Amino acid sequence: AKMAECCPPGSWPACQAPEAHQAQGSEEKIGELPIYHVGSAEKAILVLPDIFGWSQNKGRFFGIADTLAAQGFRVLLSDPFHGDTAAGKDIMPWIKSHPYDGSVGKDIEACVKFLQDKGCTSIGVVGFCWGVWAFCKAASLGVPFKCGVGPHPSTRIEGMFEGGEGAEQTMIDKVAMPVLLMPAGNDPDNLKEGGAVAKALAEKGGRSIVFLDMSHGWLCRGDLSDTTVARDVELGMKHMVDFFKEHMQMAQPTALSKH
């Protein structure tokens, strides 16, 4: 059922523990890529998870997707790791085993095509940690996203693949769409207001909102029994929804009335 505008954000599925939420969409595949698909609007949002994925570690990603769908979007949650997860692995080598030029970029392009084929005329994207790097890389290479939202971004991953120090900023400078960053208190300073990454994105219509009391990863895997975490999960989801509505409501110019 579509969620009424009057529902307080605290009642959104994204703010509920996974076992307390019944998924509203369906698990499907695009070729070999596992996806979760919910909603039917012309405005769509692609969701890219953190390195712990969702097909093995469901976490709260279904709740996040369902929350966005209830706000009037078609939502596609992708599993870029095809069932793999960084849990229990040596993380840096594991991340490097999933380069953009491997399946990551092709899968993002396949997701965009899937949504376009469904009639979606405007596509936004939200990534978590690793997912923010993935969508910024895609946008820097011309994938036509309308806007992006990045809770606790891991855009510094770009330096692991090419260019070393400075590669992250070079990638960000090529991102032309508005991006909302939501770094945690312990995320790098360049992501926070006044930092180089945040400044570059602000020039494109984006902004950075710091969640000082939070640690990296809180929005999709923080402990919801902690009232401070629950408060900021709710606030983060509200900022996300508001940013998407602000930048995706006007997909087509409104005709001026004639007098």
Descriptive terms for the model:
alpha/beta; 9 helices; 259 residues; disordered N terminus; 8 strands
User: Cα distance, first to last residue?
Assistant: 41 Å
Average of the residue pLDDT scores:
88
The helix content is: 25-40%
Structural class: alpha/beta
Describe this structure in words.
The protein has 9 helices and 8 strands. It is α/β, with parallel strands linked by helices and 259 residues long. Helix 1 links the parallel strand 3 and strand 4. Helix 3 packs across helix 4 (130-140) and helix 6 runs parallel beside helix 7.
Topology:
Blueprint (H helix, E strand, L loop, with lengths): L25 E5 L2 E6 L4 E6 L12 H10 L3 E5 L12 H6 L3 H18 L4 E6 L2 H11 L7 E4 L6 H4 L5 H7 L5 E4 L13 H7 L4 E2 L9 H4 L5 H22 L11
Parallel strand pairs: 3-4, 3-5, 5-6, 6-7, 7-8
Antiparallel strand pairs: 1-2, 2-4
